[in-house]
């Protein structure tokens, strides 16, 4: 830009020291315009080149970041597996345990009911056994008395039969 300014100010006298004409002025203005355009184009090309360099660096960094992200994701998965390598097997066994617990509940209730029934039946059995024992004792006593009574009667009849002879 400074060069362009110098050329403009320089334009009133031509290189040979003679005064400039309109044609010289037009040529000079075209030269200045041409120089300005080429300078602008050079700057645009420089900006585009730097933009591409920055873009390439950013893309490279993005690639590195993506690779780092993949590696971190793999490390995370490895850590998860490390925390519980038998996670699937454990989950399967836990599900089976839950099923068995659900099956045990009604069985436990049934068992409790049957134990209660058994206990009641056992108490009834024991009461009847005691009653039977008492009745057997009473029967034995009655049979014993009956036998004594019959023996006594037999002795009396025997004595009476002897006295009749």
What's a quick, concise take on this entry?
The chain has 165 residues and is mainly α.
Structural description of this entry:
It contains three helices and no strands. The protein is mainly alpha-helical. It has helices spanning 2-10, 22-83, 87-164. The longest helix has 78 residues, at 87-164.
What's the arrangement of secondary structure elements?
Elements: H1 2-10, H2 22-83, H3 87-164
Please tag this protein with its features.
165 residues
Report the sheet with the most strands, covering strand number, pairing sense and barrel closure: none
- Low-confidence sequence ranges: 1-15
Considering DSSP H and I runs of 4 or more, what fraction of the residues is helical? over 70%
Gap between N and C termini, in Å?
Answer: 181 Å
Radius of gyration, CA atoms, in whole angstroms:
63 Å
Strand content: under 5%
Element pattern in H and E: HHH
Q: Tell me, what's the shape?
A: rod-shaped
């Amino acid at each position: 830009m400074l060069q362009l300014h110098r050329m403009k100010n320089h334009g009133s006298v031509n290189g040979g020291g003679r005064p400039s004409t309109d044609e010289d002025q037009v040529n000079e203005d075209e030269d200045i315009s041409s120089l300005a355009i080429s300078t602008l184009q050079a700057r645009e090309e420089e900006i585009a080149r730097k933009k591409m360099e920055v873009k390439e660096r950013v893309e490279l960094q993005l690639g590195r970041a993506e690779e780092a992200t993949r590696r971190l994701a793999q490390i995370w998965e490895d850590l998860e597996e490390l925390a519980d390598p038998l996670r699937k097997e454990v989950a399967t066994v836990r599900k089976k345990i839950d099923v068995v617990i659900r099956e045990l509940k009604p069985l436990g209730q049934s068992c409790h009911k049957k134990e209660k029934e058994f206990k009641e039946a056992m108490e009834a059995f024991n009461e009847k056994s005691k009653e039977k024992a008492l009745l057997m004792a009473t029967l034995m006593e009655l049979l014993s008395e009956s036998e004594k009574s019959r023996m006594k009667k037999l002795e009396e009849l025997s004595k009476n039969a002897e006295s009749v002879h």
